């Protein structure tokens, strides 16, 4: 047993202890942590990219970004580069074909051979590659070549465009589905058959989830769909498109960029201004503060509560644990987004704002306009609206909301808890759309706004309990603990609560300063001396944080 008071410098009661394993957030999918934003390796890569990017001639800058992005991704697992090359080549050629600008077949075949060539190089470097990996990699150019020949024989242009769109989606969603969901559906199918009395003895594959595959797949989908809808023209430069898909600051956990925002910035020559350095460094510091000081410290309490049997907890502990997780996941992911934006800003590139004080939302719709904005707008534009949005009957609107949110939940991970979380938020959104009283909260009086905020925050915490639980039994344990007002076996929760307040009050004070800004990390409205004091305090809190580096939660998605 590892006494937590030794980790938290006697901040908690000496009776409060947890196992060392509880200090680490266990991922549902396993991979080896190689180059996190909070590692010295990333700092070296970013510094080198920054210096070289503004030193080399213009045409070399995009190549430098691509090289840095592939180095960053290869640091996780060099074999994952083959998947990134597969997505890049298929979407690049399908995008051009959708716009009626198909490339020669020999070029299609050559570029789509890159994933297979890469895996052969991995074998030469003594990296184990399964036979199935080599098979799909060398089958890809054949599939693309044959598909291009058959589709180009279609006489109607619209039919050709749709065929190329479905080709791109089929290849890449197939890869995503295999790596992320194959074992999940295999296990679920086996469990269902066993319940029906049919014995199964299936052998599950040892599949490692490639980090970031969900993010760059969605980014690529938006690219070809926007081309098909004539919202954007495809780029004819393979290197630029490869950089768009693999841009290292946002490659593994977003923000999910659209081609209309990021591609033009990559195509035009960048111009150096000193604000790149200031704003980039500011965003990096704020991101590190949210991640290291807020999220990693809140994780200790959240991990303890969700790994402890309900018999040892009570209502106070249950609320403490889910509140800690709420600020952990916010600090973790909004911190990541700020670090990504800051890294890109050093290179003269502006990424999309991903968070706008989500815990101030007064209703479910407003919450999703503030939380993980690039993902929620992606599902709105590419799932909810194509299904019909809210233009049909009330039943159809609820159906569209439910399907979009179920897919959003499943996108977060191969677990029925995530599906339940999606269904829960679909229910909240459905109730909101049919509740005129709830819809009027944004223009209501202050007492009603406060009541609406309290209700929405409580509902959000319940949702986070569903999200954080790694299984239904763990969720039921938390719910049982929530109902135990007086449990004589529970440890004292008051000192741990002070630990939580110690690490969220600085965040709340910072957010109070940026409350009226479009960017929750902006300090431009303050006097330069005030900005300096705030940034200095954030720096001190970050470097004196007592918890060692932890992986980012959204790396598993």
Q: Your description of this structure?
A:
The chain has about 550 residues and is mainly alpha-helical. The chain has three domains: about 180 residues, no CATH class; about 210 residues, no CATH class; about 110 residues. Helix content is about 65%, strand content about 0%. The chain is built from 22 helices and two strands. Strands 1-2 form a two-stranded antiparallel sheet. Helix 2 packs antiparallel against helix 3, helix 8 packs antiparallel against helix 9 and helix 12 runs antiparallel to helix 21. The N terminus is likely disordered.
Write out key terms for the chains shown.
globular, 557 residues, mainly alpha, 22 helices, single chain
DSSP strand tally: 2
Number of helical elements: 22
| Unreliable segments of 5+ consecutive residues | 1-33
Radius of gyration: 24 Å
**Major sheet attributes:** 2 strands, antiparallel
Structural class: mainly alpha
Helix content: 55-70%
User: Major sheet: order of its strands?
Assistant: 1-2
CA-to-CA gap between the ends?
Answer: 31 Å
Strand content: under 5%
